[in-house]
Structure formats: C-alpha cells, structure tokens
Write a structure and sequence with these properties.
Chain lengths: ~190, ~240
C-alpha cells in the first residue's frame, strides 16, 4: 500500500468538525478501519499541524474538571487539505516478503513455499472477513449518499486487492505444485 | 446442528477421456441464520458445489446432509418435495412467460397449496420484504438487473425455505446494488433464520457474509476463525458531514 498521510487524515477530520484529541483517535478507527493510530501518534500529528499553523486550539474557559483541548482547522489548514485533495495519490507499492522468498528459493524450499502460499491465502480470507466485520453502511435506499458510496468504494478496493492476492497465490500454488510433482524425490514440508 | 453439511465431497466430470475434478474432498457447513459466501474463479467448481448442496448433483464420493439427511439417499419424489418446501434455489432467469405480472410469478409456487388469494398476499409480502413492492405489477422485461435479483430472491423466499442457494447473485450489478443485494441476503438469514449459501464472482461481494470460503482447483480454503469477542465487535457506522 502507498503511505497514507496521517497528517492529512487528522487534518481532514478536523476540517469536517472540531474535535478533542481522544475523539479524533476514535474517529480514525471508525472511518479508517485499516489505520490504527496510537494516542501518541495523534498528539504528535496535532503538534506538527499546530506548528505549521494548520490547526489551533479553540479558545475557551477550561476548568479543573475539563482540561481537554478542543482543536479546529485554521483557514491555512483548510487550504492545505484542499490542496492535498487535489493532488494525485501515490500508487500502491507492490512488494511482498513472499516475493523475496520466491526469488531466493531453491528446489528444496518448494514444499515450504507451498505451505507459505496456502497460509497467505488463508490470511487474505481472514483479512476479508475482518473487513466485513468493520462498519458496513446499510444500503436499502435506491439512491445512497456520497458518504456511504465513498466508504463502499474504499472497501471495494481493499477487497479487490485481497482478491488479486488470492488469485495470484492460486497461480503460485499451482506452479509450485507442478514443480514439486515433476520432482518425485522432493522432501515433504 | 448444521442445516447443511458437505462431507469430503468429490465430483468429476468427463470430457471424452479427460477427467475434470470439479470438487476434491470439499467439506463445509451452513447453519440456520448464516450467510456463507464462496468465491472462486470461472471453472473453480462453484456451480457444481451448489448443485451438490441442493441435491441436484450427486457426489462421486462424500456425503451431503440436509437437516441430517443424506440427499443422495432421497428418492426423486422426496427431492422434489424438499425443493418445494425446504430448499430454494434462487433462479435469476425469471418467468417463462414474460407477460406474467411479477406478483403472479412470485405467487405461482403457492397457488396449489394456499389458493390464489393467500398466494398473492404472501407474494406481495415477500416482495415487500426484499424491497421490491414497486415491481409487483410490472413485467420481467421492465425490471432493472438489481430488481430482477430482488424478485428472484422473493420468488425463492415466498415458500419460506430453510436453505437458500444462490449462484452469483451479484453478477452484473454495480457497487451499490451489489451491497444492497448481499446486505439483503444477510438480513434474510438473520431475520428469517434461513441458511444462505451463495457463490460470488468477486471478493467485495463476500464482505457482508458471516463466513467466507475460497474454492480453488476444487478445494475449499477457509479463513481461520477469529476469537468470539472480535466477531461480535462491529464498529458503528459513522455519519459524516464535512464542515458541520
């Protein structure tokens, strides 16, 4: 996957509406199931955005009982967000540990590779099942809002990415199995 | 207890002298209230799998149990009865007579046992459940692709089956329509207590399913079961309004 800009994720959420640091973490987890940001990462990003003049504290009276800081996007932050929105995105980078193992493997490694390929297929299915357990907007109306469609589109990409992986793993398993079958004296995995 | 169980099912087809192993020792189960999705590429054995599950094809090896009963031991008459009352195959090809109003088409299988008025009432109820009431007086040719799928599901559900089997119900549908159809199948499973076994042409269509399986070269790959607390931990869907 291409690197996701944490800065712009946090900024985009603040452009939507003002938020406390803790609430931001929850909103990240709700909206980007695949992205988990620790408290420290959120506050570090907020500090950086504040230093750049993109976000600021909402001035208000704080009491001993409520010492939380409410953040909002500044005009500069909104401009930065719109500029990021208009930029092209990096393409996902296609590399995988399995590719290195394949490149470095010898005939004696093939049964182990086959087992690794099968395990990775199972992991892809587990990832897909995990996607399904995350927020699923109920689609009942004939016309749905862009909020819902955009999330469906992101989920669609993630599932199709896994589908490509699974399809390629099936090809890899077939090729490795054929190679093993051609070598009857291969050791078992 | 599982509603449907396939135990080490193997099926081969012959093309001349060539044996094509469509299924190789496939085992799976579907329980009441569960939507199980099977993904596989073309020629992976998906349709053969569904035909075995419905008792429409007999395995060369292994068993198919529906409510504990071995389908290969059922007579033709028993199978017809099962298909009339317990097992429904979602048929997307629609009525033979294209002039039939949709409500009549959906009610057809009930006329003999329930009478015309009751059959029509239940057909309208089934169309309402799948969100296709507007199609009741239309003809098949007037429906969109997604409406046809909804009507096909209503046609299968009207007999109140225990098991619903559907082959590629999302084929040819767009992003939103696909989501609507699979979401409907999931809620039918949960609300009506029906077991649903479906095949899908792509993995996005599997996301709403309770369980996802991969059929590859006649074998089934399953995802490892997650811990119960993770299964139940569904994140609430947020509503987004920028600038509010």
């Amino acid at each position: 996957m291409s690197r996701l800009s944490t800065k712009h994720v946090v900024l985009g959420l603040l452009v939507e509406h003002n938020s406390y640091g803790y609430a931001l973490q929850q909103r990240v987890s709700e909206r980007f199931g695949f992205l988990e940001l620790a408290d420290s990462a959120i506050y570090k990003t907020l500090e950086r955005l504040e230093a750049e003049g993109c976000v600021e504290e909402v001035p208000r009276q704080r009491s001993a009982r409520n010492a939380r800081v409410l953040y909002r996007a500044t005009a500069r932050g909104c401009e930065e967000f719109e500029s990021w929105m208009a930029q092209g995105s990096e393409r996902p980078f296609l590399r995988d540990e399995l590719h290195a193992k394949l490149a470095l493997s010898g005939p004696e490694d093939l049964p182990k590779l086959l087992a690794a390929v099968e395990a990775q297929s199972q992991q892809c299915l587990a990832d897909l099942a995990e996607l399904g357990r995350q927020a699923r907007p109920p689609v009942t109306a004939s016309k749905v809002s862009w909020d819902v469609t955009s999330l469906l589109l992101v989920d669609d990409f993630r599932a199709r990415f896994l589908e490509c992986m699974v399809d390629w793993l099936a090809v890899a398993a077939e090729v490795i199995q054929d190679e093993i079958d051609d070598r009857p004296t291969m050791p078992a995995a | 207890m599982a509603l449907l169980t396939l135990e080490a099912v193997s099926v081969s087809h012959w093309r001349g002298d060539n044996e094509i192993k469509a299924l190789r020792g496939v085992s799976l189960s579907v329980t009441t209230g569960e939507l199980v999705a099977v993904y596989g590429k073309a020629s992976a054995g998906k349709t053969t799998l569904l035909q075995c599950a419905a008792g429409l094809a007999r395995p060369d090896q292994g068993r198919v149990l529906f409510e504990g009963r071995d389908l290969s031991q059922c007579s033709a008459r028993e199978l017809v009865r099962l298909h009339r009352r317990r097992i429904a195959w979602v048929e997307r090809s629609g009525p033979r007579s294209r002039d039939l109003p949709i409500a009549t088409y959906v009610a057809l299988s009930l006329y003999r046992e329930a009478g015309a008025a009751e059959a029509r009432r239940r057909a309208l109820e089934a169309l309402d459940k799948v969100g296709a009431s507007r199609c009741a007086s239309q003809r098949w040719g007037e429906l969109t692709d997604s409406e046809r799928v909804l009507v096909a599901i209503a046609h299968a559900l009207v007999r109140k089956p225990r098991l619903l089997i559907t082959d590629d119900p999302t084929h040819g549908l767009g992003l939103v329509e696909r989501e609507r159809v699979v979401g409907l199948l999931r809620s039918m499973a949960e609300d009506e207590g029906v077991g649903v076994l479906m095949t899908v042409p792509d993995m996005p269509a599997m996301m709403p399913a309770h369980r996802v399986l991969l059929l590859n070269l006649g074998r089934v790959v399953t995802a490892p079961e997650p811990p119960a607390e993770e299964r139940d931990n569904v994140v609430a869907f947020p509503h987004v309004h920028r600038g509010s």
